[in-house]
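We emphasize that the prediction below concerns an isolated chain of 146 residues; any contacts that depend on oligomerization or on bound cofactors are therefore not represented. The input was used exactly as deposited, without trimming of termini.
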Amino acid sequence: MNPHPSLAALVRGVHHIAIVVASIAEARKVYEGVLGLSASEPEYVPEQKVNVLVVYAGAQRIELVEPASSDSPVSRFLAKHGGGLHHVAYRVDDLEAAIEALTKAGVRMIDTEPRPGAHGTRIAFVYPQGMSGVLTELVEDPHAAP
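Result of the prediction step, given as a token string:
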């Protein structure tokens, strides 16, 4: 039973899974070379101080995230965990409405306002404590099919 039925209408599906890597160039050898996945070109996201490479497993997006500086938020994650699964991102059509609905439901947001993400998206992160221990990102993607 969904205690917040209004939230169900906001989530359109998984947008991507993010994996922190020490080196996109090295990770690319495995994801493209060994697994044979297709990839976009790397993109620098200045707001998060990361380089992002999207690889596609069929229609599913996996974002390989590399810190671009020592003060990048993912640098601490990499130092502590040595890389690995970082977060799950869900696609929403209306990011402001999703933030408002989660806040009203008592879920703590890292971002209470949308901010720029990779590939022209707008994003907001949710604290892991409110999402069963998983860092969660909400993504409003103007390029996604409805």
